[in-house]
Amino acid sequence: MAANKPSVPKGTRDFSPAEMAKRNYIFDTIKTVFRKYGYQEIQTPSMENLETLTGKYGDEGDKLIFKILNNGDLINQTLLKSFDELLSLLNSKGLEVDILNIENEEVGNGNKDRKVSWRDITSKSFEQIFEKLRYDSDDLFELYQLTSLKLGNTVSEKALRYDLTVPFARYVVSHQSEITFPFKRFQVQPVWRADRPQKGRYREFYQCDADVVGSDSLLNEAEFILIYDEALSNFGLKDFTIKINNRKILSGIAEIIGKPELIVDMTVAIDKLDKIGMAGVSKELLERGFTEDDLQKLTPVILLGGGNDEKIDALKKVLAASPIGLKGIEEINTVFTYLKNARLKTAKLELDITLARGLNYYTGAIFEVKTNEVAMGSIGGGGRYDDLTGMFGLKGMTGAGISFGADRIYDVLEELKLFPEDATQGTQVLICCFDKEFENYGFQLVNQLRQQEIRAELYPPGAKIKKQLDYANNKNIPFTIMIGSEEMQRGLLSLKNMQTGEQRKLLVEQVLAELQA
Amino acid sequence: MAANKPSVPKGTRDFSPAEMAKRNYIFDTIKTVFRKYGYQEIQTPSMENLETLTGKYGDEGDKLIFKILNNGDLINQTLLKSFDELLSLLNSKGLEVDILNIENEEVGNGNKDRKVSWRDITSKSFEQIFEKLRYDSDDLFELYQLTSLKLGNTVSEKALRYDLTVPFARYVVSHQSEITFPFKRFQVQPVWRADRPQKGRYREFYQCDADVVGSDSLLNEAEFILIYDEALSNFGLKDFTIKINNRKILSGIAEIIGKPELIVDMTVAIDKLDKIGMAGVSKELLERGFTEDDLQKLTPVILLGGGNDEKIDALKKVLAASPIGLKGIEEINTVFTYLKNARLKTAKLELDITLARGLNYYTGAIFEVKTNEVAMGSIGGGGRYDDLTGMFGLKGMTGAGISFGADRIYDVLEELKLFPEDATQGTQVLICCFDKEFENYGFQLVNQLRQQEIRAELYPPGAKIKKQLDYANNKNIPFTIMIGSEEMQRGLLSLKNMQTGEQRKLLVEQVLAELQA
Fold it and tell me: Could you tell me what reaction this enzyme catalyses (chains A, B) (predicted)?
């Protein structure tokens, strides 16, 4: 036995058979609903070109992108050996083109007779070069900078996917000529973030997104609400709320107060209402540049109560002078009207004007889903964005999308004991032979069962019966069949229900009927 | 429109909806069979600790491992800036522990007054250090080596999974106390190799493996053959061969000739029989250290013809003096005997003693699957290995496994037109509104259809009807429903079969019945 068990990298996880069965149940349930609404699956590569990803997630996000070394052996061979070897390696690592490009780049220009060209740098030893440069510290600086610049450019050109949205935007632009718009796609793949791992935050985790691009119809928003409702109802959740807001309402509010430039500060503050209460929000608003006068206007809007219709009526009055605000209300109202033609199964729908979620990104609807049965952050979110593909030069591509938080849904279903038994059921029956002499009979039987599409196993004959039954129990196999000499002679199989312990002698045909039931 | 479309990294691929549907069909078909035989799915992280992977794939393999930079910003911030910044960065990047460890490491020991400690290196500027070292080239060498060694150790500690076997071995050792043996797992996940991309060879591709560990029963080998037979038959393949060999037979042959030490050379040569013929094989055997005498003994064995029983009889005679060879024959014979109790659906089973496949790895059975309908390399392979987890310190864990080549199976099914239509069918019906005024009616209808579990879409109303029908055609949607004023007034829906062009006026109930059929 190994003294030191090998481990997985921090923030990553193995998924055991029991966990995988549950995860598959979650993903399959969501995918089935996506497909029912016309969404089609795509997959993009795990790695994207570095330039595709950088600059898309802000400075903080950029730092969390996992970069891949171009070539498996470059770093070890370079940084672990002397500078001399490093330089000649640069030459050998397909840097020919770069060398040509910078042929005129030289170090040591101050003095002609100790000038060092790029060709020198890539062909001579460190010592020879140092000597030629006469150990001039300025020149040595320059030498290092030039070399490291070239090296830096060749070290990493690829990075691991940070989310599914930017790769999707890249996909739409790459394939624009083949795609029929509106394009409704879903994608369920892992993403990687070099975040500090902590409870519930991983460096590798699955995202589960559906987006539509090329359609500004608000029917899409209505359908996203139906997708949430249907998928989460299918999981057996009994009480959850889909919150909806609209960026244009937030813009309208900031406009009415006369501080449209402070919209981000305003939404960051009011987004915290749940956590810090109105007193805390007021304090923060004052700190962020709002006046007591502004607060008097804002407070009643933030604390807007009542049902969705009442909120809409109240907002119509408050935002009467703001065309963009009124547009936001109209959009939400349209979505609500559509939904009157499609009864929600379980979801409560709630207009919540404190909802902001990645505001700089969304331009219309904003969604967030929370379960009311378990204390848990949001289990889904999304919204409309007017310019998904602009970052790759394709303008005017409006879209909207939602995401399911699979890890959190897993925890919720676990806590509420909602994973259905048959979804996580593997092998249906284990055949146990008391003796190796029955193995051919056992093998024949297991194959007979499989021909009837029953998931069946034959435990390698000869082991102690306790070991075989433990195997069935640990693998959660509901039935076992014992084969001994008596069974073989009388042609009867001993079928044991592992949960009740009940044991019956049956003919093969009866066993089949029992298992297929 | 973008001038330069963004692209994916060399050797990686996007999978469009049509491709994904076909790939899912392949994976789902194989997974269903794996489950039927008691195999359970697991997943391991995309990244493993570098030490888990290195040294497991030979020197060539090691070079093809994609390494991940520890921290997104390390390289750019270090190598793109001056050496000075690099050094202070080392200090700030959690190198505290390392610094303590090597506090006594110094550069410039030759002369006490210009000694530079690691603390100097990580805190002072390049220029200050150079000055202290008086630009002594030996010291500068040493400085670079020390720094780069430290940097090298911190640059990459993780790498992308190269195959599924080593992570599986690591999984078994990590989870040995939770696992009930024999452990039958399958795994379908991407792997990454920094190989030169070429036709059919990718840098990211899926592997699809099933392995059992902790059981030396030859029933496992028999079941692997049944799994291949069932999965490939389910794809509709009509003519394929499962080749089987046994490492012990190859050992026996080398032993009989009196050159057991040349077993690798022997198998590498005879493995090429298909490609270079017996003349080529003979030439290579001579080059690899065999004599004309050896060839006289080897040739009849290599060219062994007839059915499996005849081959076994002949081998029994040839290997009569080799206990290990006879053991190999006995093992194959046992597998064949088991299979007499389980009729193969389609597969031809062929004992092929030229089959070697990763010989150093396998210790018993060796499998390879080839289709006879299309010119294509092997679409599957595997075998038994006696010491899967020894590399991680857990001894005596015997196992066997097989793999399906999903990309090749995709090409085979495509060429033979074997992808079933319903497996790749997405949306079943598209509802087209002539006018935006019907959209609420259309939305009601689409939801009514979805309540009956029909995959249905409503095209955002208002677009030209040609555009809507093009959408249906491009998305391969088999039916459309047109909604205009006439349809709404008469309560009849106009259902169009997009393949035949046939159009019928039906009641909602009739449409439902039609689509559910």
Answer: tRNA(His) + L-histidine + ATP = L-histidyl-tRNA(His) + AMP + diphosphate + H(+)
Q: Least CA distance to A473: which residue of chain B? A: B180
Domain count, chain B: 3
Pair A147, A120 in one domain: yes
Q: Report chain B's terminal Cα–Cα distance, integer Å.
A: 44
Residue B499 lies in a domain: yes
In this predicted model, what pLDDT tens digit does every residue of A276-328 receive, in sequence order? 999 999 999 999 999 999 999 999 999 999 999 999 999 999 999 999 999 99
* B189 has a pLDDT exceeding 90: yes
CA-CA distance, B75 to B70, in Å (whole number)? 9
Residue B27 located in a structural domain: no
What's the domain range around B465? Answer: 425-516
The confidence band for A76, taking pLDDT boundaries of 50, 70 and 90, is very low
* Cα–Cα nearest to A37, from B18, B433, B451, B19: B451
Nearest to B463 by CA among A219, A189, A449: A219
Cross-chain Cβ contact B173/A43 below 8 Å: no
3-class DSSP assignment, residue B498: coil
Q: What is the pLDDT of residues B327-356, one digit of tens each?
A: 999 999 999 999 998 889 999 999 999 998
Contact across the interface for B8 and A48, Cβ inside 8 Å? yes
- Binding residues of B for L-histidine are 163-165, 193, 207, 211, 357, 361-362
Token readout for B254 is: 């080398």
Chain A residue numbers with beta carbons less than 8 Å from the beta carbon of B217 are 460-461
Provide the residue count of chain B.
Answer: 517
Which of these, B398, B370, B369, lies nearest to B381 by C-alpha position?
A: B369
- CA B375 to chain CA centroid, Å, is 21
Question: Does any CB of chain B come closer than 8 Å to the CB of residue A451?
Answer: no
- Written as six digits, the tokens of A228 are 């949430």
Same domain? For B439 and B390 the reply is no
B513 phi, psi to nearest 5 deg: -60, -40
Is residue B64 one of the residues assigned to a domain?
no
- 8 A C-beta contact, residue B211 and residue B334: no
Beta strand residue intervals within A77-163, DSSP E: 106-107, 116-117, 158-160
- Both A234 and A245 in one domain: the answer is no
Given a contact cutoff of 8 angstroms between Cβ atoms, the answer to whether B33 and B228 are in contact is no
The answer on A61 and A192 residing in a single domain is: yes
Is residue A379 a part of any domain in this protein? no
Single-letter residue type at A309: D
CA distance B334 to B248: 14
* Token pair for B93: 């990047």
| CATH number of the domain where residue B454 is located | 3.40.50.800
Whether the Cβ atoms of residue B191 and residue B164 lie closer than 8 Å to each other: yes
Q: How far is CA B31 from CA A451, B188, B215, B339, in A?
A: 16, 9, 21, 22
